[in-house]
Design brief:
Length: 189
């Protein structure tokens, strides 16, 4: 059975969503962030040396990056679900969207989170960060024009991550992060 090492308020939520979407059974090992520092507990290092989440264990296989975990689960257990219908023709675009949320889009979100903790000292950075967040939201909105999913007519593994990025991670960012007008408000993939 798949085991997921899950840290509250982390990217591991998208892995749980994927497992539920595929109706897969799994064991959940929960970790709580320190209430003062917001850091993961040291015990998470027992699952992976970096002490980060998510970590997936499936028999002898341990994977610690959400994109790689999604790739593995979709390929191993998806049975064709949550993958592009024409994987050969769409693999590069699928991979781009799959890794987008941890690449181009994540840095401004993380900077926003940390700079907000600086109070007035972070003020010189806010316009630049807000501009990058708005740029990413527009990119996603443009990609969704006239469609509900990033990859055709069906939800895919890449939608799992961008859904979390657009509607989960951004939900605490106020006016900067309104749902794009081209989005249906549902999952996008």
């Amino acid at each position: 059975m798949i085991q997921i090492h899950h840290l509250n308020n982390s990217r591991s939520q998208r892995i749980l969503w994927l497992l539920e979407e595929l109706s897969l059974e799994y064991e959940l090992v929960k970790y709580e962030r320190d209430k003062t520092t917001n850091l993961a507990p040291e015990t998470l290092r027992d699952a992976h040396p970096l002490g980060k989440s998510p970590v997936m264990v499936d028999g002898e296989i341990t994977i610690a990056e959400s994109g790689a975990i999604i790739d593995y689960i979709v390929a191993t257990y998806g049975g064709g679900r949550l993958a592009p219908a024409d994987i050969a023709a769409e693999q590069n675009k699928y991979n781009e969207w799959l890794h987008y949320s941890e690449g181009s889009a994540m840095l401004p979100l993380m900077l926003h989170l940390y700079v907000a903790r600086l109070g007035d000292a972070g003020a010189p950075l806010r316009d630049r960060i807000d501009g990058e967040i708005a740029n990413n939201l527009k990119y996603m909105e443009d990609a969704l024009q006239g469609r509900d999913f990033f990859m055709g007519n069906d939800l895919t593994g890449c939608g799992n991550r961008t859904y979390k990025l657009r509607f989960g991670s951004m939900s605490g960012y106020g006016a900067l992060c309104q749902v794009p007008s081209g989005a249906s408000g549902g999952a996008v993939g």
